[in-house]
Amino acid sequence: MVSVTGIPGTGVPGVGPARPRRRLVARPAAWLVWGAVIFFFLNLLGVVGSVLVSSFGRQWFDTWLPEGFTAKWYSDAWHQFTLGQVILVTLEVSLLVVGLSLLIGVPAAYVLARRSFPGKRAAYLVFLLPILMPPITYGIPLATVLYKFGLAGHLSGVVLANLVPSVPFVILTMTPFIEQIDPRIESAARMCGAGLRSMFLRVLAPLLLPGMLASAILVLVRTVGMFELTFLTAGPDSQTLVVALYYSMSAAGIRAQQSVDAMAVIYTSMMLVLLVIALRYVNPTQLVARVKEEPEP
Amino acid sequence: MSVTTSPHATVATGPPRTPRAHWRHRLAERGVDGQLWLLAPAVLFVVLLFLYPFFYGLGLSFQPTKGGPFSDYARFFGDAYQRGTIWTTLGLALPAALLNVLASVPIAYRMRGRFRGKRLVTILLVVPITLGTVLTAQGLLNFLGPTGWFNRVLMALHLTDEPVRLVHNYWGVFFSLIITGFPFAFLLVLSYLSGIDPTLERAAATLGAGWWQRFRTVTLPLLMPGLATTFCLTFVLAFSVFPSAVLVGNPAGETRVISIAAYQAAYEQYDYPYASAIAMVMGAIELVIISVVLLARTRLYTGSSGGKG
Amino acid sequence: MTGTTPGFSQLRLDGVSRRFGSQDALAGLDLTIRTGEFIALLGPSGCGKSTALNCLAGLLPLTAGSIWQDERRVDTLPPERRGFGMVFQNYALFPHMSVRANVAFGLRMRRLPRDEIRRRTAEAIRLVRLEEHAGKLPGQLSGGQQQRVAIARAVVLEPSLVLMDEPLSNLDAKLRLEMRTEIRRLHQSLGLTTVYVTHDQEEALSLADRLVVLRAGRVQQIGSPQTLHTRPANWHVADFMGYRNLWPMRAVSPQGALVAVEADGFRLVGDPMGDVAPGDAVMAGVRPEDVRVGEPGEAATNTMPAEIEVVEYQGRELAAEARTATGIRVHLRTDRRVAPGDAVALSIDPERLLVFPSDSDEAPSAPLADPAGARLAEPGLVG
Asked: Which intervals hold domain ABC transporter (chain C) (predicted)?
């Protein structure tokens, strides 16, 4: 298809004008690229698969596959690690973080996308900083402050800590999204007699919905997977799944390896469910940045 | 603003005019009006939850439990075991981030445009990002361990006689950084590439540029700013490596990264000033590297890349 | 939709100004618009015409000045409370709403009864002949159809004023002509007061009752199409109104109501536009269609021998470029079959040669060729 549409990138150094030749020469480079991708995926499959297989294995030592299969590790894990409670906390934290970060981030993104005002660059930089900083760097001072005000160790502390990277993330994903909406559409709405409120609710909100959904899901996924900040601020009752998983892993030897694996699988499936939901609404590439799918010529 | 509206001020400026309309106009002209209030929650948030704790930590780092204001920094840099964490971290993060970005370019270049299965590939790539480091660590322990599938395959192919040690050392952490970092870098690079108008390359082709020349003179310069940004974001991910360094690395030795040092100071020795000092060092190093990259980025062309959006 | 609903008898712009930083995008626009009038704001890009329109719409705050709808001041009102309709350059249709919903949007904002909304929406869609497309989304329509939706959306509210911002500039030539007629038809049948921004003088001349020519944020001339066509106020307006021949010359002597001008020993007689005293640097302008082509050897006032250099076929006429013996380049239109290299005599009716005071040292966009021009443009000779 590449040579048909004439899109460059067939991987031909010193290309001749003849099409068929070009196609033949293109092969090795393409193979190399695909080989790398496939190798990566094989390893990925191994990483995820070995956890999955182990979690169902009765016993697994020096063999290709476990000696037998059982589901008992799952009930073990569920009881040992009080997973019901942990999952509940995880959901509470994530949903609160998503809601709050959208509430705070979207209006800010709107202003940053649409307006120019003195100090805009500085504001943008400050909003960018939490994403550019390693979570541990600001996590430790943040946790210290949260402990000082008695917020850490509870749900509220975990939520507040997780907001720190989430709000900038919403701002960062929403700003380009808003920028690509023609500001004249807003002007048109106002010329049609819509006040600011109706303009936001009836015109802007439906147009922003895909972007907000995308960033909401992205924040959700990141929050469920966020280890460092939750780890630094959570108390025994406010651990999310990933933190509980870390604790059970670093205490290896106390628990059976397989029940840790079972917990890991529960975590994985939770993430995959989120991902499936996410991908119903957004293109995977759009999860990361603003993308324009170019039309075929 | 209240100063300019006060009657006093208008009297002082002389000519009679409507002060209300006047300062409104002047502010509106500079882009300041009521809509800026929408920014308020975010500003409040960033001040309370980011700037304040950050400066609090900065202040704390200069108030060590004993010694002068700089003694915690001196302690960190004076102790080879602690100081070495910087090089350990950089030794992991820089190669990993570079590899992730560099490997992404040809693959993304090959995979832009449409083809069957593109969506599937991108979906699969999002999986490791979603899983995060902790799960990856658990998987790597199983998969790369001495009795794991990877070593089994190597031995079955007679590439090695005894299992290669791939976990609980540098390589375990490195692989975990690739597994989570590569898809992230790839998706970013792919999106930057898709933002470049493909007709530009076609134009170059009609002007007689070969494949490599087109890439080198048209696509790459337009892609460079995006690559710089991607590198920064991937580097941040890799630099803050913590759980995998503990779980699949050798947290007491070759993968004792700086975040482990900070964590131990805070949560094992309860020395918050010292932990803050280490965190500040960590942030400073990271910001230096990012600023260098971003500074270099400002020297590149960063305007429109021909996309119509 | 059957008649006009005049919201005012006149709309007055009083010193409307807008600055961006230190730049005057619009400086003191004074204009009175009577109800039912079609006004075109005309000028090259960056002249401030879109700024003027946005100020009028309320989308841009004024830096100074005021806008009055009869005795009511409206420049302090937000756009949605001015009751104006607007058609945007790129249509600015709501991409997530059907054609019907786009048109009905304004009526819904006014909380009109459902029946009335339905009736008026259908009527507006019929008016722009889009009945078959009412259920489609804007993305499924062609440019011309989108343009019609934009117009229907603006006029369905029966606004007291319709603002149009280069509505035809995104259309191809054929469609542009069609839509031009359409807009004219709508204006005639609905009698809506309209302010229309364009950079296309032909479009402005054909549509408007009155034209406002802007340059660098300042009004150059306000007048009827005829006035602008035949009596441009200064050479900038002339340049913009199709006076492709603009020659820097020097006034010599008055000749009755006319004035003789000269450049490099080459003498013409023209109609002075403004104060021209002997010795002044002037700009002499004539439209290509007012240059008459005759046989070589003719000798009368304003006749000059020239050689045809470039010829463009343009249907019934030819557009040609000729060069006189003194090196002046002349654009002309003729129905004579001339060919490059032909020797001809060009003559200009003195009434049609307009002589403008040359206001500054700026050169016109179609300057005189080489030596004579260069010398005349020297600062010492000007003013």
From this structure: 11-241
Chain C: partners with 3+ C-beta pairs within 8 Å: A, B
Structural domains of chain B ordered from first start: 1-32 (no CATH), 73-298 (1.10.3720.10)
Q: Give contacts of C93 with chain A, Cβ < 8 Å.
A: 185, 188
CB B92 within 8 A of CB B238: yes
- Among B residues 239-298, those touching chain A with beta carbons less than 8 Å apart: 239-240, 242-243, 246-247, 259, 262-263, 266-267, 272, 275-276, 279-280, 282-283, 286-287, 290
State the span(s) of chain A assigned CATH 1.10.3720.10: 73-288
Q: Give the per-residue pLDDT at C132.
A: 93
Nearest to C257 by CA among C353, C383, C347: C353
Do the beta carbons of residue A36 and residue B103 sit within 8 Å?
A: yes
* CB–CB contact C109 A193 (8 Å): yes
B121 touches chain A (CB under 8 A): yes
Average pLDDT score over residue span B236-261: 86
pLDDT at C78: 85
Q: Which residue has the higher pLDDT, B67 or B289?
A: B289
* A185 vs C contacts (CB less than 8 Å): 92-95
Q: Are strands C23-34 and C38-42 parallel, antiparallel or unpaired?
A: unpaired
The Cα A281–Cα A279 span in angstroms is 5
Question: Best residue in C20, C96, C111, C157 to probe A by mutation, most A CBs within 10 Å?
Answer: C96
What is the sign, positive or negative, of the torsion defined by CA atoms of C172, C174, C178, C180? positive
Q: What ipTM goes with this model?
A: 0.75
Q: Test C106 with A203 for CB contact under 8 angstroms.
A: no
Res. C122 pLDDT band, cuts 50 70 90: very high
Does A263 have pLDDT greater than 90?
Answer: no
Domain range A73-288, its CATH number among 3.40.50.300, 3.20.20.140, 2.40.10.170, 1.10.3720.10:
1.10.3720.10
Which domains, ranges and CATH numbers included, belong to chain C? 10-230 (3.40.50.300), 245-381 (2.40.50.140)
b/e map B91-107, b = 16+ CB within 10 Å: bbbeebbebbbebbbbb
